[in-house]
Specification:
It is a single chain. Helix content is about 50%, strand content about 10%. It is α/β, with parallel strands linked by helices and about 450 residues long. It folds into four domains: about 130 residues, Rossmann fold, CATH 3.40.50; about 160 residues, P-loop containing nucleotide triphosphate hydrolases (Rossmann fold), CATH 3.40.50.300; about 80 residues, Orthogonal Bundle (Helicase, Ruva Protein, domain 3); about 55 residues, Homeodomain-like (Arc Repressor Mutant, subunit A). β9 and β10 form a beta hairpin.
Length: about 450
């Protein structure tokens, strides 16, 4: 980011050394040889940074600094001082000066300090744009201004107005349910019910009853008649989340409902007509599930009349400032100002791959807000996986070896459990460890029963 800089120095040799270095770094630099000239320029022009010597003719650097604070409070001031005047510079820091350097100093060090201001202002600019974007948004639930997200939102608006079945795909944490809710809210069914069911949350024996309803006595525990989710969604939208996990028997019945608009509750011979728009979602590759014989191809085409794919966060980095400000706002306590983010913390966030996508970013911001205590969020307030990321020479994120090994072990555990079809004893045998050791590792990696079921 280019900065407009005023260099205030009565020593021409220092000016001639500093100005070319700052210009080579891409900044616009003008000069003043004494304090009086500097005060005049600060009053008449806008500067991002003022770099001023403390000892100046006509008006000293501290007076220049205080004038800048009064008439241009957003201007950052760096003081140049002799060793004997360090006390004055430290006092100015307490009054709001950005930094100071003791003469003689390395010009490259000054350029680095100015670069820090440029990064800080770049972040502030991005967050200001985010605030403007969010303030002007009619619906702030889906945050994104990148080309891919704008294209998705445009297509979503067209799809919402139709009655077509929609399949929403995307990695875990990208916000598939928010997209589905937006489809319902902008459809002609918006005044009707919105009913969601997670197909992975019910065993095969209960999912059909949950969807289509059942009569009293239809199965053990069915002590009364119950309408299913299709009936509850009559006149509105039914959201089938994790559709790839639906067992084949339920898939066949779902296909009939989509074809005929009729459900048959378990334990009855009744045919109940329903008017329901079905929108489904999955993070899995359904074509691969079809090839593996786990998903019906005819059902896939019924569900996927129109497809919407949500890109992962790492493929839309321009949305990161928008999302960051959004989560800072919602996670900050209501009685405090929204937390700010340091340059170091922003750098770590901007290179982190976010395999958990928007959900992982939300958790990271909440974690940081809590640990920062409402103050500026710095590197140490971020989760370890993010705080420990470094940047390689090619600009890509380089994760610590411990984090990579931890992720590899978790993936290997999940693979073994999938091969063992969820049987812990068999998985422990495949891994060559004891059952007790396996349980300890599952707890260490926070692998739950639902995680295991999802991987099968």
């Amino acid at each position: 980011m280019q900065l407009r800089i005023l260099l205030v120095e009565d020593d021409a040799d220092i000016r001639h050394a500093v100005m070319p270095a700052l210009r080579d770094a891409g900044h616009d630099v003008v000069e003043a040889a004494d304090g009086a000239l500097a005060v005049g320029r600060i009053s008449a022009e806008r500067f991002d940074v003022v770099i001023t010597d403390v000892r100046l003719p006509k008006l000293d650097g501290l007076a220049v600094f205080r004038h800048a604070r009064r008439v241009a409070p957003r201007t950052d001031v760096i003081l140049m001082t002799s060793f004997g005047a360090v006390t004055d510079a430290v006092g100015a820091l307490k009054e709001g000066a950005y930094d100071y350097l003791t003469k003689p100093f390395d010009v490259e060090e000054l350029v680095l300090r100015v670069g820090g201001i440029a990064e800080k202002r770049g972040l502030e600019r991005d967050l200001e744009a985010a605030r403007a974007q969010l303030a002007g948004a009619a619906d702030g639930t889906i945050i994104g201004a990148s080309p891919r997200m704008l294209k998705l939102l445009e297509r979503l608006s067209m799809v919402a107005e139709s009655e077509a079945a929609v399949l929403v795909t995307g990695e875990t944490g990208t916000g598939k349910e928010l997209v589905v809710q937006r489809i319902h809210a902008r459809s002609s069914r918006r005044t009707g019910p919105f009913v969601a069911v997670n197909c992975a949350a019910f065993p095969e024996t209960l999912l059909e009853a949950e969807l289509f309803g059942h009569a009293k006595g239809a199965f053990t525990g069915a002590d009364r008649r119950r309408d299913g989710r299709f009936k509850a969604a009559d006149g509105g939208t039914l959201f089938l989340d994790e559709i790839a996990e639906m067992p084949l028997s339920a898939q066949a019945k779902l296909l009939r409902v989509l074809q005929e608009g009729v459900i048959e509750p378990l334990g009855t011979n009744e045919s109940v007509r329903v008017d329901v728009r079905v929108v489904s979602a999955t993070h899995r590759d359904l074509r691969r599930r079809i090839a593996e014989g786990l998903f019906r191809e005819d059902l896939y085409y019924r569900l996927n009349v129109v497809g919407l794919h949500i890109p992962p966060l790492r493929e839309r980095p321009g949305d990161l400032p928008l999302l960051l400000h959004h989560f800072l706002r919602i996670h900050s306590p209501v009685d405090r100002a929204v937390s700010e983010v340091s340059v170091r913390a922003w750098q770590a966030l901007s290179v982190y791959p976010f395999l958990g996508n928007v959900r992982e970013l939300s958790h990271a911001v909440q974690h940081a807000v809590v640990l920062s205590g409402g103050k500026t969020i710095d590197l140490e307030h971020l989760p370890d996986d993010i705080a420990n990321v470094t940047v390689a020479a090619d600009g890509r994120a380089l994760r610590p070896l411990t984090a990579v090994l931890k992720q590899a072990e978790r993936e290997h555990l999940m693979k073994a459990l999938a091969m063992a079809r969820g049987a812990r004893t068999r998985a422990a045998e495949l891994l060559g460890i004891s059952r007790k050791n396996l349980w300890e590792k599952l707890r260490a990696h926070d692998i739950s029963d639902s995680d295991v079921e999802e991987s099968l």
